[in-house]
Amino acid sequence: MKTRKIIVSFLISIVFLATGYAKEKTKYSPELEKRITMALNSAKENLNNKDNLGLRNDAIYQIVRIKSLHPETDLDTFKKKLGKMSMNDPQLMIRTHAFLALAYLSDDRFVSEMNLTINIEEPEIFFEKVDHIIHTEFWANIQYDKDSGVFTTLTSLE
Fold first, then answer.
1. For residues 157 and 152, what is the distance between their CA atoms, to the nearest angstrom?
2. Which of 7, 78, 79, 97 could bridge to 150 as Cys pair (CB 3.0-4.6 Å)?
């Protein structure tokens, strides 16, 4: 029963994010705000799913999709969880994606200057792009603050 509830909440988040709603630069409409809130609640629940690697991975990707589509959305509540996942998750893929998602959330240049494109069918390509940008555009002086649970902001090579 619990697994069914998790799968249903995940599917709801996919439906809301895949509807192709347009970016809004200032204030979100009440309907869009509701969709974002539902998707974030679903992602939060799925990040804690210990049994299903796919749900955890998809939740990480949905968080970065929301950041990409709606950069003004406050996603700071996910940083501590992503930091812990990047250090402690038993699956290497989850640790890597959590780290890359945290870097993406921690530095607005990924959204503004890098203009990364998000394709719902290709999360691996997105994470490869983030990794490439970290290694080519930024230097890898990334420190994890255990007290706050977040990484320091990336610094440009320039």
1. 15
2. 79
Whole-angstrom distance, CA of residue 142 vs CA of residue 102:
11
Structural element, H or E, at residue 105:
helix 92-106
Quote the pTM value: 0.68
- Asked whether 106 and 150 are in contact (CB, 8 A), the reply is yes
State the pLDDT at residue 15.
Answer: 47
The letter for the amino acid at 102 is L
pLDDT digits (tens, 9 = 90+) for 96-122: 999 989 988 888 777 766 666 666 667
CB-based burial, 75-88: b 16+ in 10 Å, e otherwise: beebbebbbbbbee
